Structure formats: C-alpha cells, structure tokens
Amino acid sequence: ESFAPFVATSLPQVDRILSLASVVASDVVCDLGCGDAAVLRRAALSTGRSCIGVEVDHELVLLAREICAGDAPGKVIITEDILENYLLSPSFASATVIFVHLVPDQLKDISSALQGRIGAGVRVVAQRYSIPGMEGSILKEIPSMPSDADSYFQSLGAAWLYGLRDDQHATE
C-alpha cells in the first residue's frame, strides 16, 4: 500500500536530479518509489543503461511499464515490491546511484540501508524530503525553486545528494 499520493516529477526536475547525481553510462540506476518512472526513463535514454524502479502501487507499475515500453524498451525494469524486500535483493546491491521519492516515514525506515550503500561508494539522491539521520553524508543540496506552475507539487522541489565526502574515503 502506498504511503503518499503519486505526484509526477516534471521534466525540469528530472533533469536537475540526474545532473545532481552526475549519472554516467557506467552507473546502475535504481529508483525507490519510481511512480511513472520518469527519472529512470530519462536516465536510460541518456546513458543507454538499464535501470530498475521499485513501486508498490500496482496502477503506477502498469503505467510506468507502458510508458517505458514506448521509447525505452528493455531498458527500464519496474518491480512491484515492498521496500523492505527489495532492499535485500541483488539488484539493490548492484546499484551505484539510488533515487528516493519517498515520504519522511519511509525514508526514516530505510535510512540505515541507504547509509550502508553510501559506505560502499553509492550516490543517493532524495527528492522533496531529506533523509533523517544522514545529515553527515550530504554532499550537495539544491533548494526548492518556483516554476511557472501554480502548484507546490509542480515546483522544482528541493533535492539532496548523499555520498562519501573526500574526508570519509578509506585510505589504502
């Protein structure tokens, strides 16, 4: 069951968060709470890489699969699963960039799993809400920006990039 209503991510916001994460062709991109898979679709089209999304809302899973089948066939895999199960999967373990489009309660529940992935050198981008308990791993924050839209939910919401800071990298 979904925790929050789906709010589509605008194309300008998709571009902002992909740029924030510095997604490149060698990345394995994962999106937790992928909704209509807008971020994954854009990442797959720009890098040529396969991406995986996780969504609990069955109708959104069907919508995302339909949208991606049109112009990113075979590049975006959408999994209908609860987060707790997915966090234990091999595909989560292989991700190098993780996008999270979740509400604060969900972010709090998975923050330790995300912190563990950051320790392995993974970049995490949170949109709209920062991840509780991970303040020490923030590399960059972009503030919310107004857009031409009247709705707050269509604005360019805040986003945070989490990862290992230079002083946190293990010395060899």
UniProtKB/TrEMBL annotation:
Keywords: Methyltransferase, S-adenosyl-L-methionine, Transferase. CDD domains: AdoMet_MTases. PANTHER family: METHYLTRANSFERASE DOMAIN-CONTAINING PROTEIN. Belongs to the ANT/ATPSC lysine N-methyltransferase family. One of its GO terms (biological process) is methylation. SUPFAM superfamilies: S-adenosyl-L-methionine-dependent methyltransferases (SSF53335). InterPro entries: FAM173A/B, SAM-dependent_MTases_sf. This is Methyltransferase domain-containing protein. The keyword S-adenosyl-L-methionine applies. The keyword Transferase applies. One of its GO terms (molecular function) is protein-lysine N-methyltransferase activity. It comes from Polarella glacialis. It comes from the Eukaryota. GO terms for cellular component: mitochondrion.
